[in-house]
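FORM 12-B: Structure-to-Sequence Request
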């Protein structure tokens, strides 16, 4: 631009760097908006499935069925992975199936299904009990039954039943039998033996501590009982989540990262030069400004000034 005997020059470099802070603020606002949308319309809910169970969800026009659940273990017995085969149903018709595991969820119509946890259905436990005679080492009877079931002992006029099963046996401060957890850390079964309608034995037997059995005999008996094995159906815990604001949050994060990149790695620079002609000479007045890296601007500024001096 020229006015009278003065010429004004303006040079700008990396102009987008000026807008880095603005882009960061826009990103923050978008993230906040996404959080508000998620808080108003989103939810998270844990669903417990046994194999074959079908569950519905609020505000969903479909249902989910658990076809299969399996737990993988390391050689030392610790859990390695849980895998659930889920099928999405619409109007009772299967739409898609997927095996989900930790960090590999199923997504459908804005809903996401995560593998969260697992457990055992102890209310329908099946136990294996070995019956021996103290005075006859060759005597052994193996019997399997479910909790609440009565089984006749082969060769003996006795029937036995399991009334209770506790996965992690403990006696609390009120002297009550309860389970410390749902994990099978100290499995115990309360058994009862009857001859006809007459009870002859009752008490707790322990899987991991067979010698710690607490059997009360109403009548003298030579029988001993061991809890050898137990089986319970596992259930899968699936976390269902709907987060309608998640896309806004990701977009906001994108703006935030872009703004930070512009502000820190693309700093803008500006140089202003005034050329004033007087008495056949040209006087040069120049200055520069940079949002960052002023040393780099100084080096570039000196190169430009050197070039202008050569034009004399």
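FORM 12-B RESPONSE
SEQUENCE OUT:
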């Amino acid at each position: 631009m020229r006015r009278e005997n003065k010429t004004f020059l303006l040079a700008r470099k990396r102009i987008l760097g000026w807008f880095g802070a603005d882009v960061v603020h826009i990103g923050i606002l978008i993230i906040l908006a996404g959080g508000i949308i998620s808080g108003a319309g989103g939810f998270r809910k844990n669903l417990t499935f046994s194999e074959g169970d079908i569950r519905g969800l609020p505000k969903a026009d479909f249902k989910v069925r658990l076809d299969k659940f399996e737990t993988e273990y390391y050689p030392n017995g610790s859990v390695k992975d849980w895998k659930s085969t889920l099928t999405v149903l619409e109007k009772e018709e299967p739409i898609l199936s997927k095996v989900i595991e930790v960090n590999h969820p199923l997504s459908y119509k804005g809903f996401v299904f995560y593998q969260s946890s697992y457990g055992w259905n102890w209310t329908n436990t099946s136990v294996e009990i070995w019956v021996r005679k103290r005075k006859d080492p060759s005597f052994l009877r193996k019997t399997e039954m479910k909790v609440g079931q009565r089984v006749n002992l082969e060769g003996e006029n006795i029937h036995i039943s399991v009334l209770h099963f506790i996965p992690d046996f403990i006696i609390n401060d009120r002297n009550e039998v309860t389970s410390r957890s749902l994990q099978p850390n100290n499995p115990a079964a309360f058994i009862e033996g009857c001859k006809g309608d007459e009870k002859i034995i009752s008490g707790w037997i322990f899987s991991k501590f067979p010698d710690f059995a607490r059997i009360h005999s109403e009548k003298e008996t030579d029988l001993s009982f061991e809890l050898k094995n137990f089986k319970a159906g596992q259930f899968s815990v699936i976390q269902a989540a709907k987060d309608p604001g998640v896309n806004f949050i990701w977009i906001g994060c994108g703006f935030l990262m872009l703004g930070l990149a512009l502000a820190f790695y693309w700093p803008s620079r500006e140089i202003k030069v005034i050329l004033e002609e007087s008495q056949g000479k040209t006087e040069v007045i120049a200055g520069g400004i940079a949002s960052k890296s002023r040393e780099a601007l100084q080096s570039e500024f000196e190169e430009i000034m050197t070039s202008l001096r050569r034009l004399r």
